[in-house]
Amino acid sequence: MFAALITGRGSLEMVEFPDPSPATNGVVVDISYCGVCGTDVHAFQSGQPYNPAICGHEWVGHVSAVGADVKGLGDGDRVVVAIAPACGRCAPCRAGQSDRCTVSFLSALGREPGAPAHGGFAPRIAVAASRVVKAHSALTDEQAAQVEPTTVAFHAVRRSGVRLGDVAVVQGAGPIGLGTMQWVRAAGAGVVIVVEPNERRRSLARELGAHHVVEPGASADELVKELTHGLGADIVYECVGRPFAVQSAVDLARRGGSMCLIGLADENAPISPASWLIKEIGVTSALAYNHEEFDMVMGMIVDGRFRTEPLHTSTVGLDGLGAVLADLASGESTQTKVLVDPRR
């Protein structure tokens, strides 16, 4: 069996692995679709070492083998990849901070004991049974393949403290930014502004419910000032994942406002600490999600509060993944969410 791994800057290799078998507490999943994440794209751009276990971490598939100690899962069950639930034994769990569970955190990074040797850009994968959640029966496979990134955005907005009626800015209209924008609207923000340089993605943001869309730079600054009577936004979500965007998020916020950091830059960001201090900016950040949030998100996709269909722009086989990564890394792509079907 071959799995696709990002092995360097602009380098994608098909690496041979033995057919997987389940651990006693694990399952084998035949993958139907795996989404291409911004993290995958950044690794392809930068060439920095990339953990093989998370090279393709947005997948849905059907269980094809079950370990001897696994309960509650059987052959044929359709599942999505998730984070491990809180263990109840580590120091954070014993301190009543199960949302900071060490076991869950390591599984989000693909660093847990027994982590797979490759990610979801493969026909099959063996994972711990705790790492999968049964997919909601009303979801299509294409919707289910987008549950993981949708949950990333849900977790961030849930943590951010957005209030009813807030003026909210979302920087970046990639899959995470467009997901964040939808959750911010669902949470009751009064005005939602999306800042994005790509014209097609600006149009998609408008289609999905953004009240205003604008290019970054002076145009964004002026629009935010106009809509807030010169005060600045109540909350800004940074979803670009580039160093320059961290300070620009704070620049768009009002005094006493807040910034939520979601995009993961692969380099240190230049900031102006004085502006953060003078504005008394509140900061939240979000990495991954909590296990229980997957069921919440699936339910809200099913009932229509979140739309995945407009985000899905194309599907390719494993043989088309290299070209997709190069396109997404170019900065000029017209794609939003690309799914990989390893059965092709």
- What Rg is obtained from the alpha carbons, in whole angstroms? 20 Å
The CATH homologous superfamily of the largest domain is termed Medium-chain alcohol dehydrogenases, catalytic domain
- Helix fraction by DSSP (H/I, runs of at least 4): 25-40%
- Would you give the CATH topology of the largest domain? Quinone Oxidoreductase, Chain A, domain 1
- Distance from N terminus to C terminus (CA atoms, Å) equals 14 Å
When the domains are counted, the total is 2
Polypeptide structure, described:
- The protein has 344 residues and is α/β, with parallel strands linked by helices.
- The chain folds into two domains: 2-146 and 308-340, Quinone Oxidoreductase, Chain A, domain 1 (Alpha-Beta Complex), CATH 3.90.180.10; 152-285, Rossmann fold, CATH 3.40.50.
- It contains twelve helices and 15 strands.
- It has helices at residues 38-46, 91-94, 102-109, 141-144, 147-160, 175-186, 199-207, 218-227, 243-252, 273-279, 293-302, 321-329; strands at 2-8, 11-16, 26-35, 59-66, 78-81, 124-128, 132-134, 167-171, 191-195, 212-214, 233-238, 253-261, 282-285, 312-316, 337-340.
- Strands 3, 4, 5, 6, 7, 14 and 15 form a seven-stranded mixed β-sheet that branches. A six-stranded parallel β-sheet has the order 10-9-8-11-12-13, sandwiched between helices. It has a two-stranded antiparallel ribbon with strand order 1-2.
- Helix 9 (243-252) links the parallel strand 11 and strand 12.
- It is globular and about 65 Å long.
- The chain starts with a strand and ends with a strand.
- The model has no long low-confidence stretch (mean pLDDT 96).
